[in-house]
Amino acid sequence: MWRAFWSWYERTYTLNISIALTLFLLQIVHLVWLFGAVVWTKLFGAPLFEFGAMHSFLIAVVDYTEIPAFISVSLIYINELRKGWDTKSVLYLALLNSQWLHLFWITDEIVVATLSGTVLVAIPAWLAWIAIGIDYLEVPVMVDMLMRFSRSIREKRVGEFLKTVRH
Prior knowledge:
Helix 2 packs across helix 5 (66-83), helix 3 packs across helix 4 and helix 3 (27-44) packs parallel to helix 8 (108-116). The protein has one domain. It is elongated and about 50 Å long. It is mainly α. It is 81% helix and 0% strand.
């Protein structure tokens, strides 16, 4: 069963990386919000920009695309590691999956409340900054995903998928 899954995954690599990349690049919206509304406010006393209710809702929706993005991007690195040890894949897999700590333990809401001083019981400020740093650990992985996508297009790996669709 696993062999069949990984065989399919290899045949549809460009499609899989396209989906993973799209989901993952949505996180740029979240990172921009985090910088402009949270970090900037803490450093300079006022946000770089402010979002209304609709924008906040969209940020929340984008934030929930993190879960399928983490899973789909992790599969790319797991697939690489199936073929043999690769330090870069292990590093990027670790950077990516450190996000789970932030996602389920030190959420954005806790970070914002801690840094703004709006809660009675908060985490230490240094831990909030670590959580923010964890969020930005996905940037090198995003760059790697863009490079992998570009390489798959240059190598015409999309043709492998199209051949299987036609037959």
